[in-house]
Automatic annotation (TrEMBL):
Protein name according to UniProt: 2-dehydro-3-deoxygalactonokinase
CDD domains (alphabetical): ASKHA_NBD_KDGal-kinase
InterPro entries: DGOK, DGOK_C, DGOK_N
Recorded GO MF terms: 2-dehydro-3-deoxygalactonokinase activity
Length: 292
């Protein structure tokens, strides 16, 4: 089994794992994402996070925003359609210390898109749970159409970021008390969002409903979450013509459950794959190629 170091280096956080003979023997976390380096260089953060690890003796594979123009080194995207198996042969070496995984892009008149980090999860997912359509919820949710191990196309929906902005920086969430989870509020939001061709006119209604006392002010976050996710799944499944195939959700359990509920509401079957498991499996396959 291969020994290697894996690093998931995003915008706000960094996670690193040291594997020995295929077993994780150490894990470290840092808040030094590429947008939070302060006065340190990426090389200095790398040295700190991997201190005491055999970085000169085993493959070091990094994925995520570390390869962006805001990261350690701007790594070119691989243009879709692309076979995920090609990723391991298209890595970029940085300062003779580590390898950075390239992101993926779509460049068409009807769709311009990019991803960094999710491609590594997809690499693991196609081995663990092959599927024609993957949903990758998060701040910027990805909907990925596959053909075996080839990424044909993908789109991004800014559901998570939009929820945050509306709740924290807009009139919709102004003056709200501390929010509480409420499953009924989430389901109500899903019902509205999935049945409306456009939710632009619905967004102000979220505020009006609690101002007028029609909706509990403590549950607005969950209602808004349901509204946005419900609309997302209804729109994207229609675009992907997903009626005849189960959808695989790659995410942590809490977020995956929300998407499963929304998909179930519109009559769609789905299965889940834990995001960290997919990422680790993808990194391992790359490390195995580097070691052999």
């Amino acid at each position: 089994m291969t020994s290697y170091i894996a690093i998931d280096w995003g915008s706000t956080n960094l996670r690193a794992w040291h594997y020995q003979a295929g077993v994780c023997i150490d894990e470290r976390r840092s808040e030094a994402g590429v947008t939070r380096l302060g006065d340190r260089t990426p090389a200095e953060v790398f040295a700190s996070v991997t201190a005491g690890w055999p970085v000169d003796d085993v493959p070091v594979v990094m994925a995520g925003m570390v390869g962006s123009n805001a990261g350690w080194l701007s790594v070119p995207y691989l243009s879709c359609p692309v076979a995920l198996g090609d990723i391991a042969s298209r890595l970029t070496r940085v300062e003779d210390k580590a390898w950075i995984v390239p992101g993926l892009s779509v460049e068409r008149a009807d769709n311009y898109n990019v991803m960094r980090g999710e491609e590594t999860q997809l690499l693991g997912a196609v081995e663990l749970q092959p599927a024609p359509l993957y949903v990758m919820p998060g701040t910027h949710a990805k909907w990925v159409q596959m053909e075996q191990d080839r990424v044909l196309d993908f789109r991004t929906v800014m559901t998570g970021e939009l929820h945050h902005l509306l709740l924290k920086q807009s009139l919709v969430g102004a003056g709200l008390p501390e929010q509480q989870e409420n499953a009924a509020a989430f389901r109500a939001g899903v019902q509205v969002g999935s049945n409306d061709a456009s939710i632009l006119a619905r967004l102000f209604e979220v505020r009006a409903s609690h101002v007028l006392g029609a909706r509990d002010r403590r549950h607005i976050s969950d209602f808004l979450s349901g509204l946005l996710i419900g609309h997302e799944v209804a729109l994207m499944t229609q675009q992907a013509d997903a009626a005849s195939q189960p959808i695989t959700i790659i995410a942590g359990s809490a977020l995956a459950q929300r998407y499963q509920q929304a998909l179930q509401f519109i009559g769609m079957d789905s299965v889940t794959l834990e995001g960290d498991r997919a990422f680790q499996h993808g990194i391992r396959s790359i490390a195995n190629v580097l070691a052999n």
